[in-house]
Design a protein that fits this description.
The protein is α/β, with parallel strands linked by helices. The chain has six helices and six strands, in the order ααβαβαβαβββα. Strand 2, helix 4 and strand 3 form a beta-alpha-beta unit. The protein starts with 5 loop residues before the first helix and ends with a helix.
Amino acid sequence: MEGVSLADLYKFDEIYWVPQDKTESQLAETPAIEVASDTIAEVKSKISTPWVVVGQIADAELSRLKLIFSAPPLVLGPTDWSVYTPSEEEPSLSEFLKDTSAQRYIFIGQQPAAWQGELPTTEIEKVESKIVYFFPRYISSLTDAEKTLKMAFWNALKEMKA
């Protein structure tokens, strides 16, 4: 493991601060896009938030994301982001991005096989005029020993804000 300076590690330490005026009900307001009975085209038309988290997001992961997105300097409200659970029958990634209206995409964890060659390698990329970030692990699975990975995720989100 290569060395990381402590100054770089805590470059964006303010991400750990969550305003006390945020209530549990405000944090619980994040919409999830249901895939069940809708066709993929109908689901894509429902993506109406500027930010979309794409992946199999469990409750533990969703709770962490709600905290992350409610902490300055990011501060995304319930109408700013949503969660999309992809199916294995997804079109190509570039087609998916072109057919959906969000501007910022955060792909977390395992993604459909059709997207494997097209996803960025944990870097922020511009694809189809949209900002795309791929993080291969779930935030809830990271340990305290993996602080550099946590900071890489936080820093990437802040870069996407700009």
